[in-house]
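yo

u said u wanted the structure for the complex thing, so here. seqs first:
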Amino acid sequence: MADVMNHIRTTALGAIALVSISGACARQPEPEPKLEPPPAAGRECEVVSLTDGGAEAINVALLDEVSPAHAPRPRNDAERLLFRQLYETLIRVDCEGRVCPGLAASWSALDGGRSWRFVLRSDARFWDGSAVTAQDVAWSWKGRAQPAAVAGFDSVTIQDRRTLTFHFGRSYPTVPTLFADLAHAVMLSLPVPYWPLGTGPYRVERPIPSSDLAHLIMRATPVPDESRPRIEFRLARRADVRDLLDGGMDVLMTGDPEVLEYVTMRPEYLSVPLTWDRTYVLLAPSRVRALHRGELGGDTLQLPPEILDALARDAVRGEARGHRSPAWWEEVAVCEPVLEHLRALPPAIPVAPYRVGGPRRVAYARGDEVARSLAERIVALATRPTSPDQAAALGTVIPGLLGTEDPTSVAELGAYEFELALARGSEFLLVVALPTSALDHCYQLLNLANRVPWLAVGRLAPSTTFVPLVDTRRHLIARKGAAAISLDWDGTLVISGADAGGGGAP
Amino acid sequence: MSFRTRLRLAFVAVVLIPVIAFALAVRKTMSDRLTAQYQRRVDALVAVIAEDLSLESDEIARKLATLARSATEDNRLRWAALGGDASRRAYLLDYAANAMQLAGLSMLQIQDAAGRIVSSGHFRNEYDRLEPELPELLGATLGGTALVQARTPEAQFLALARVDSFRLGGRRFTLVGGTSVERSFLAGLARESDLAISLVYPGGVVTSGGDIPALEAEAVLPDAEVTSAEATAMEHVVAELAIPFVDAARGELVDSRIVVTQRLDELQALHRSIDSWFLAAVAVTVLVAFLLAGWLSSRISRPLVELAHKTSQIDLDRLNIDFRSTRKDELGALSRLLGSMTERLRAGASRLKEAERRATIGELARQVNHDIKNGLTPIRNVFRHLMQVTREDVGELPRVFAERQGTIESSITYLENLASNYARLYPRMDRQPCDLNAIVSQVVTNAQSAGGVEILMELTDRSTVVNGDPVALRRIIENLVDNAIDSLESGTGTVTVSAQIVSGEADTRMIRVSVSDSGRGMSEEQQAKIFDDFYTTKEDGTGLGLSIVRRLVLDLNGTIRVESELGEGSRFIIELPSVAPTGAQDRREGGQGE
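structre next:
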């Protein structure tokens, strides 16, 4: 009987030992990723400081049309300024390139950087007070029917209410900065004319109609920090900016040299040059065709710097410089997987490509005065003998521009028309503004390929398919001490109250 | 053609001819004056157009002069233009645009001495373009104004331009500026809707009107097309103003012209309106003339017609026609003359009648005396015989009285007949509507029942009602039938009595009764006397029958005549006025006349 008991005891102990050993040898759980701590708060990006507590309300002039239908992808400077105050991205990148928390409190790399996990802030709320969940983030982007390729990531998985993981086709050694792009801002769509629900520091009330020259279109109230000033956005698209300043506007952005000169006479205002954020390039279907045929190359690819400087100095009214290399489209070596993906796609055949003998129009988007100036100069050079060196240089990079009796003219296109012309390549020439710098070159490359498919991004080097002309920047005009204003990486203004810098919500 | 119709036509002619002649003259005068006035107005407008162009040119010159002065006083422009500061170049490049807007010009460019554009208002970014020929050619034009072809970034446009200059730091700059010449500019010159202005230049045609589409300035038209574009069938060229055109491509001045054409539709519409009113006036005049003529002719002819009718009624037996008139004109005088004539006739007739009556009475008296004597003589002879017998042999008196009684009785009978014959001479008339057909039928029936002679009746089936004394009518028919029977020799032959409807004077409805016989007939001498009193062809006739018939017929306002031929027979024709039947009766009877 004892033997039996011992035998059982031994067996049990052995089993227990076996289980213990087995358990000890089981796969160890991955160590918790080290969460990147939010960077220290810095005031290097603050361009306007608040003094004496600031005002209860700040008047901000919007010099372009804004529409809730465009949120969160800004189509102009006014929307960029407005959307930045209303909507948050997972992360922010400040003017120094530092990554700061946004909606996400922390993030970590997985799988060697091919996946990145984000944990949302516990206090992240929509304007209506509801908590922001990982599901909300994922659905926010899916709801916009954005192709995965342009989204910049392959897929997203949700771990819990506040945790989600993005999966990429390539490895990111550092946190993917594309999540700082306003296009990836988180919001809940509502029927027009209501603004989508955001998580930003400001929320908008209903539009307020007015017949004033600079009429109030919306009031943004701070959420949740009551210490922040209220922002009253005023649409003043056709107003003289000097009248706005005389009328007590606190903040606006402009590149008009007359206004900049006027500001120098107004000691209560300061003018802060923003980053060179826009590069105007020339797109020509004839050039792309010539590239395909191998008829262009070498020195004929780009304009000499002196020509570009002359254009910037003389043709453009506003602050401009000849384009400086390198630009992000010239540094796409790391985007080889993206390029390979693009090459694998069937070649884009423009729906209505420009044909020789058609109307020779140099098209630009309505409202873009810099593009118009450049288009005018190109027409002048192409039409009658003007500056021979400039004309010759331009004729070299744009096949078919010179040596014809056919008239060339400028054509102003509406926003939708212009995008259509870009997509189809249906105009002789197009003058378009591209961002001078990019958070994520590959992401921008994808956007460019999607927007202008006949550029054959992937098959032709982007730096060869279009001709950069000038870089431009604007100035921030702000009343001294009215508010604390800092800049993001792309020059976007962030308006805040007493505490302008720091991590967390701006 | 009746007097009334002639009168009407004459009146219409008398009225219309002068009126139409007058209206034609007025129309022509109005038309000529309208055309002349229109032409004067057009000439004045053309002069105004030329003046406006001149004023516009002067205005451009004044603006350029002001800009030139302003440019010399602008330090920033001076510094930028003289190349002292590249940072001011933007000011220089923008200068022309601001100046152009301030001055209200459509085109402005500033060129240096070499002809290089240093600032362009209408095309900001065409700076550094060389165009030395433009200011030279403009300066060479007479009056300093010319058309130039400029362009904006979007398209070309035509401008009326002038040139001025200024100096900065010893360097000469030219100002070329002007006003855009487009459809609205030309329309503003035109001022009037019926004038169209076209600008014909080597590059095409610009017009002011909307009907002729303005052609693109770049289009080059053959001369024939240009000419056809200038004037259509409804326009004519009233003036051409020459204006030089700067052909920069060839570096020369060529002719262009402003063609003023006048649309003729308005003037033609005015003429048509005048013609329409003229025709309307003539039509109204003709209508009124015809109506007036009809009324007047009717008023004039009616008394004449009435007078004629009255006159036609005059008869020796009817001289009581009233010709009294209150008119004071010739017709009144004529009427009164006729009246007095009738009065004299009446008097004469009365005297004649009196004489006739006396003659008749005398004749009658003689006849009565003769007849009475004829009747009394046998009676007196018998009385004398009886007195003789009474004296000589009273016993023979009964025998002799019995013997002579017959003589007395026949004489008495003779005197009774004579008395009744004489009583028939003046019967009393009792007028009432009488059916002649019925009376004729009765008389013929009575005559036929007496036997011996064939009497035929041919009576109309239409109404034969007359207004008369039935006894008189019966006597008339009886007398004629008896006479016709008596005229038949040896009592054989045919008597035909017919009644028919005929039209009398002034289309009056008459009933014609004819009594024809196949008797011995009458000579013309006999026919002339047959209606005289006491004229008879019978041995035992009194000669009063037909005279009585004639009087009776006349009293019934009728007529009687005879047609006869010796050996062939006679025909007595009576026509009496009928009592007019109702329209229904007449339609049933199938109208008048047989």
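Chain B has 14 helices and 16 strands. Chain B has a mean pLDDT of 83.
cya
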